[in-house]
Amino acid sequence: ERYPDDVASLTLLTPAGLMDKGVFSLLRSLPWFVQSIVQRCLRRNSLNAIRNDFLRHGTELENRVVAQAQAMHKRNPHAFPAIFRSILAFPLAGLEETITNVSAARLPTLLVWAEYDRVVPFEPHYGRWKALLKTGQNVQYEVVKEAGHGFLKEKPAVVGDMVVRFLKCPPSWVPPALIYQLKSHPSTITI
Fold first, then answer.
1. Cβ contact 120:16 at 8 Å
2. What percent of the chain has a predicted confidence (pLDDT) above 90?
3. Phi, psi (rounded to 5 degrees) for 98
4. Pairwise CA distance, residues 47 & 57, whole Å
5. CA dist 167 to 18, 52, 142, 159, 178, Å?
6. What confidence tens digit (pLDDT) does each residue in 125-160 have?
7. How far apart are CA 10 and CA 7, in angstroms?
């Protein structure tokens, strides 16, 4: 609604905005000292959480990503508390109205999800997004097969191809002026 002339399309990769708000509401309502205890417990398990982003465990990629996270936490011990605070502040739930508005605006939207996402499970979340977005005919759905939550790292070429295909070959319902804008000003497209 704010930038109708500037936004040509929208690509959502594992959109968590429709997660159940119960956990986040509970965490946000706790006193700061209880949040601090929860944060310490989660930090101890943060590397396991990163490992859960991958479908297959023990791979070279998974080990490299975990090592990078360990190095980051060692260099900056305040990184995890900052991430925790941002998760509490970020609207990871309750975006139904926003998604409905995106659909009503007929903004070409690509929804991409991993088949075996354990962090933001495919169902029920994918189904909730799909149900809200189906009110408009401006949505394409793609599922990254044989991948987990870290599908951007696991299958970057597959995801890149999905996004490029979406941007280069928009469906027939996309207005011709928008297709011209996408093709004539590709530098305005961020992948």
1. yes
2. 3
3. -60, -45
4. 12
5. 25, 30, 13, 12, 11
6. 777 777 766 655 677 788 899 998 888 888 988 988
7. 8
Q: What is the pLDDT of residues 156-191, one digit of tens each?
A: 889 888 888 887 765 555 556 655 555 555 444 433
Contact 185, 133 (CB under 8 A): no
Write down the pTM of the prediction. 0.65
As a whole number of angstroms, the distance between CA 171 and CA 9 comes to: 12
- In the three-class reduction of DSSP (H, G, I as helix; E, B as strand; rest coil), residue 80 is classed as helix
> Which of 147, 62, 61 lies closest to 112 in space, CA to CA?
147
Please name the residue that has the structure tokens 């011709």. Answer: 176
Question: Any alpha helices (H) in the chain, and if so which ranges?
Answer: 21-29, 32-44, 46-51, 60-75, 79-89, 96-104, 122-133, 151-154, 156-168, 176-184
Q: Which of 71, 68, 73 is nearest to 44 (CA)?
A: 73
